[in-house]
UniProtKB/TrEMBL annotation:
Keyword Oxidoreductase among record annotations: no
GO CC annotations, alphabetized: cell outer membrane; efflux pump complex
InterPro entries, A to Z: TolC-like
Protein name: Multidrug resistance protein
Broad class of where this protein is predominantly found: membrane
Record key words, sorted: Cell outer membrane, Coiled coil, Membrane, Transmembrane, Transmembrane beta strand
UniProt-recorded Gene Ontology molecular function terms: efflux transmembrane transporter activity; porin activity
Compartments (UniProt record): Cell outer membrane
Membrane-spanning intervals of the chain: none
Species this chain originates from: Flavobacterium reichenbachii
Coiled coil: 107-137, 327-354
Length: 416
């Protein structure tokens, strides 16, 4: 038995995004060109279900659990069978032969301790998978709403294109009737072209967001979020212990159980082993004489296992301290996330309850006034840009709210 260190190993959305951003942008071009292929729309719950079923990291975790369960069969660990042949003049001047077989078996609770340790290791593998599954669920949720955010921006872009296309027609009409100069037409055409260019960029962004989601779900199908899903993330605050706190507590308590069983196993290895043997030999090259042997292996120098047992006890204290530290960090983090969530919620409430209404009123009033000739071109553009900016801020506020809500519901796991 050797002492080991067990650490949390989970999937990190931030780490993957930086490393794969270049590859995603390259794959985005291919995605746009094959956009006509069939796409499967999935709900968030379905996306999470697919991810937990397909994700290779979780499959690796399943194999680790399977491996630890298989290793339970190694609990009984007898020594290797000893077979020895002796030939020579050990009885007389004649050349005699001796063959002996001996096997030593562990005594005491060694087998039981090994089996219990292996059972705890299998449970630890399950706890580690639960943490990875938790982090995967968070990553899928963030990627899912990132795509919906892209859809909202594209919808806004289409709305702006409709507004400026209408503005361009009015500008061309006013120019033909001599009510305005050509500058209005040129400016309107430039704005429409700018919006069309932005639309192409938004399609690339959506392709990247889709690949981010597909990266976690890990399927060959072009799955996309259901566009009928409400853009605002549905968040229900839980006043009880968070899921992460329970997962971390379970993990480190299980880790402590492993170290406890390790200590018991090392102590059990200090017990003697009993050996049974059989021999057959000739005497004066005549007849075949047989017999049995019995013996003990006594670990006179058992200090190594004693030291390992003490080291396992120290590891227990380390795991308990790490658990205490993570609980403190998690509580502080939840306070920070709660404050940020409330800030984003208040900001979103303004744009939903007031900002959006102001933007729509500004656009309607400006369009009517400009069409009737009651407003100058430059005033119209100024008001239109103000309204557009408000709508953009609404989309950004919703996106920021979603991120803060997901972070609050799925606090980040601190790797140790």
């Amino acid at each position: 038995m050797t002492n080991s260190t067990y650490k949390i190993s989970t999937i990190s959305f931030a780490d993957f995004a930086e490393n794969l951003s270049r590859a995603l942008r390259l794959s985005a071009l291919l995605f746009v060109t094959v956009a006509s292929q069939a796409q499967q729309k999935v709900t968030l719950e379905k996306a999470i279900e697919l991810a937990k079923s397909n994700n290779i990291d979780l499959k690796i975790a399943d194999k680790e659990i399977e491996k630890q369960n298989v290793l339970r069969k190694t609990a009984f660990q007898p020594d290797a069978l000893q077979v020895q042949y002796q030939g020579g003049q050990f009885n007389s001047v004649d050349f005699d032969h001796n063959i002996s077989v001996q096997q030593f078996f562990p005594l005491g609770n060694v087998t039981k301790a090994n089996r219990q340790l292996q059972e705890e290791l299998a449970k630890l593998a399950e706890k580690r998978k639960a943490l990875s599954s938790y982090e995967l669920e968070k990553a899928v949720t963030l990627a899912y709403y990132q795509y919906l955010y892209g859809i909202s921006i594209r919808t806004l872009n289409s709305e702006l294109n409709e507004i400026y296309t209408k503005f361009l027609r009015n500008a061309e009409l006013r120019f033909r009737t001599g009510e305005s100069g050509n500058i209005e037409v040129i400016s309107a055409k430039a704005k429409v072209k700018e919006i069309e260019t932005q639309k192409e960029q938004l399609n690339f962004d959506l392709a990247i967001y889709q690949k981010q989601l597909q990266f976690f779900v890990q399927t060959d199908e072009n799955i996309i979020p259901d566009e009928n899903t409400k853009l605002q993330y549905f968040f229900v605050e839980n006043q009880e212990n968070s899921k992460l706190e329970n997962l971390i507590t379970d993990f480190y308590q299980q880790q402590i159980s492993v170290y406890q069983k390790e200590a018991v196993t090392f102590k059990a290895l200090r017990t003697p082993k009993v050996g049974l043997g059989y021999f057959a030999q000739t005497i004066n090259t005549e007849s075949l004489f047989q017999g049995f042997t019995a013996g003990l292996q006594i670990p006179l120098f058992g200090g190594v296992n004693t030291t390992k047992a003490k080291a396992a006890a120290i590891s227990i204290s380390q795991s308990q301290l790490t658990l205490d530290k993570n609980k403190i960090i998690l509580n502080l983090q939840k306070e920070e996330l709660q404050n940020n969530f409330q800030k984003q919620q208040k900001n979103l409430n303004y744009y939903q309850n007031e900002g959006l209404q102001y933007a729509n009123q500004i656009i309607d009033t400006a369009q009517k006034s400009y069409a009737n000739g009651d407003m100058s071109y430059w005033s119209y553009i100024s008001f239109l840009n103000q309204a557009i900016d408000i709508k953009k801020q609404l989309a950004e506020a919703t996106h920021s709210y979603n991120q803060s809500a997901v972070e609050l519901q799925f606090p980040t796991i601190k790797n140790n």
